[in-house]
Design brief:
666 residues, alpha/beta, Rossmann fold, Immunoglobulin-like, 8-stranded mixed β-sheet, 6-stranded mixed β-sheet, 14 helices
């Protein structure tokens, strides 16, 4: 509990005044023995216990009245979760704000989103309470600390505005800890505002282990979680997964083929109307959705033969989250889908070349080149859309490492397979453990992530046969990345590096037939490679499908298509939309993981934050209750009730009717 007038608590000893007066009053009269009064006192001893109790209660009421008065004048603050504000006034208050697309879910009555509600409630609490010497904001999109002069400024900062991004909660927590260490903070309070989406919190991310260790070393940090776990049962969301342009025979023109995914929080078949905009021309149609998600493959959209490039948008009916009701796409003439395999020998590279040269999309050109690991200088990094690396990891300061990092930062993908020999290097914070032999040739993949990323289920909901692979030996993956698959004994088999742009994946299952059946079983291997190639195509082609993010528009001068520019500076890349820079087209959309409605429950949250000193307040979008309220009015009411009880106790007892019969008439 905090107090706005803390100095008034110095008056607490005044609560003893009624007791002091009572003791003084007892000493004022000298006792004189008198026979007649002695008789009356003996008669009164029969009621002495009840009378003494009444006097004690009267004295207690007077003491309580003074206590309530002193506390009311000191203006105490309590939070919505009793005792949350206990612990004194912090030197610094850090606000960690989840700005992911899912935080834009809005309350229909108030029109406020979860993000806006969180900002308002924290700002109001800081304005009403005893302010820290320093208030610092770190948002999930920029991850940069910004010092705030006044709590009310939080409501108008661009760093608290909406985005179409995905939050990296482990990175956000790490940024707060790094700031606390760098600034040598003493007593600090950290408010983390989030809707607890699993895709944002990444419970399988290896970084949480080091974060828990750091939390134990920083006991001066008190964590306050303002969570919004409630979802919208009628919310709809749409994603554009791929776009292809196809020439029709004769003079029939051309058409776009769209791959869409529609998600909803419901079951049963339903028809959903949707709008489709292509180069500013709008049409309306309907999608049939069964279950909680529906994949639509090859949705044909006619375009003129002269329309070889442009932009478009798929739009669902408005619901509680406008951020997932639209998905943008762009299209332009196809370029070759080129892959480069860097491997230790041709035998390992052969199945990789065969898979990546196979034509998946009609009309697309697939090319794959093999480069020996000893001749990495021959790699043409500018034209490749996917690099598969089966060789020792390069040293962090080497030219090869710089090329790989730049390749990933350009939005393209790298898939690393383990080398046959020893390798102590690390790249993107990830490295290889020693080779481990299976006790016998058996299924070694115990778990893999099926809801998102490169091992997700297929469009019809079927799981990849990843668990059916036969493994003779494998290498565990070590690092702080996001684990996508584990062996039956818990070792990390597939891990995604924590990079801001592009993708770096590490797979501990070798395509070498002497180690695993990954290449020979085919299905999981083929899907894995072509999903990664598609990521590279989205980044390297003239028409690119990108996730919204900080650096999404940092590589050129981009003009927004079909809309008036709203955001400025780095905020531009955080919003969904279609853009053009010269001959390149780029569509920015919310990440696919933001469509996953799964949230952490209290047990999962407690396991994730073991070692943190934290408290949780659950909120709802549009909720107006303050996080810290003054309760002096309640204390004044209590004081009045106590004085009323004291007055009742002081009233003389009612006369006994039985005694009146013996009284003489006046």
């Amino acid at each position: 509990m905090n107090f706005l007038q803390l100095g008034m608590l110095l008056a607490l000893p005044l609560a003893a005044v009624p007791v002091i007066i009572h003791l003084i009053h007892q000493q004022r009269h000298r006792t004189v023995k008198w026979a007649a009064m002695m008789f009356l006192l003996d008669a009164k001893r029969m009621n002495h216990g009840i009378d003494q109790l009444r006097q004690i209660l009267i004295l207690a009421m007077r003491v309580l009245a003074l206590l309530f008065l002193i506390f009311a004048v000191s203006r105490p603050l309590v939070s919505g979760w009793l005792g949350l504000a206990m612990g004194g006034v912090p030197d610094t208050t850090l606000i960690l704000l989840d700005r992911s697309a899912s935080m834009e879910e809005t309350d229909v009555t108030s029109g406020l989103s979860k993000r806006e509600t969180a900002v308002r409630r924290v700002a109001d609490a800081l304005e009403k309470g005893v302010r820290s010497e320093r208030i610092v904001l770190i948002d999930s999109a920029l991850l940069q600390p910004v010092e705030i002069r006044h709590p009310g400024d939080l409501k108008n900062l661009p760093q608290t505005g909406p985005t179409a991004t995905r939050a990296n909660i482990p990175g956000l927590v790490q940024a707060a800890m790094d700031y606390a260490v760098a600034q040598k903070l003493g007593n600090a309070e950290i408010w983390l505002c989030s809707d607890l989406r699993e895709g944002d919190w990444q419970p399988d991310n290896g970084a949480w282990e080091s974060l828990r260790a750091s939390a134990r070393e920083l006991p001066n940090l008190r964590w306050r979680l303002l969570t919004f776990p409630e979802g919208s049962p009628d919310n709809l969301g749409v994603q554009v997964e791929a776009v292809r342009r196809r020439e029709l025979p004769g003079n029939a023109g051309a058409e776009l083929l769209l791959d869409l995914e529609v998600r909803r929080q419901g079951q049963g078949p339903v028809g959903i109307p949707f709008g489709l905009v292509v180069n500013g021309v709008r049409t309306v149609s309907e999608i049939a959705v069964e279950g909680d998600r529906q994949k639509i493959r090859g949705l044909a959209v006619p375009v003129g033969r002269d329309r070889s490039e442009g932009w478009g948008m798929v739009e669902l009916p408005a619901d509680r989250n406008a951020m997932d009701d639209r998905a943008y796409f762009v299209f332009a003439p196809e370029t070759a889908r080129r892959s480069v395999i860097v491997a230790e020998n041709e035998n390992i590279a052969a199945p990789l070349l065969a898979a990546l040269r196979a034509r998946v999309e009609p009309g697309a050109v697939y090319e794959a080149d093999f480069v020996l690991s000893s001749k990495v200088a021959e790699v043409d990094w500018d034209v490749a859309m996917l690099v598969v690396w089966q060789a020792p990891l390069p040293a962090a300061d080497s030219l090869e490492a710089k090329h790989l990092i730049q390749f990933v930062q350009s939005g393209r993908s790298v898939l690393f397979f383990p080398p046959t020999g020893a390798d102590a290097n690390r790249l993107f914070g990830i490295g290889w453990e020693e080779w481990k032999a299976a006790a016998q040739e058996e299924r070694q993949v115990g778990w893999w992530r099926t809801d998102a990323d490169i091992l997700a289920n297929t469009g019809d909901g079927k799981a990849l046969p990843f668990g059916e692979l036969k493994v003779k030996r494998f290498r565990g993956v070590a690092g702080d990345g996001l684990i996508l698959a584990r062996s039956s004994d818990g070792a990390a088999l597939v891990m995604r590096g924590d990079v801001s742009r592009g993708a770096a994946f590490f797979c501990g299952l070798s395509p070498d037939p002497a180690a695993t059946s990954l290449a020979s079983d085919g299905v999981a291997f083929f899907v894995l490679l072509h999903r990664l190639l598609q990521k590279g195509v989205n980044a390297g082609a003239r028409s690119q499908q990108w996730e919204a993010g900080l650096d999404a528009l940092a590589d050129g001068t981009w003009e927004r298509l079909g809309a008036t520019e709203e955001a400025l500076g780095p905020e531009r890349g955080l919003r969904a939309g279609a853009y053009r820079s010269g001959e390149r087209f780029r569509a920015l959309n919310r990440p696919i993981e933001e469509g996953n409605p799964e949230r952490l429950d209290s047990a999962e949250l407690a396991a994730l934050l073991a070692g943190f000193d934290y408290r949780v307040i659950e909120g709802r979008a549009g909720e107006g209750g303050a996080l810290a309220n003054e309760i002096w009015r309640s204390l004044v009411i209590l004081m009045g009730l106590v004085l009323l009880a004291e007055a009742v106790l002081c009233m003389p007892p009612a006369p006994d009717p039985a005694k009146r019969r013996f009284e003489s008439p006046a």
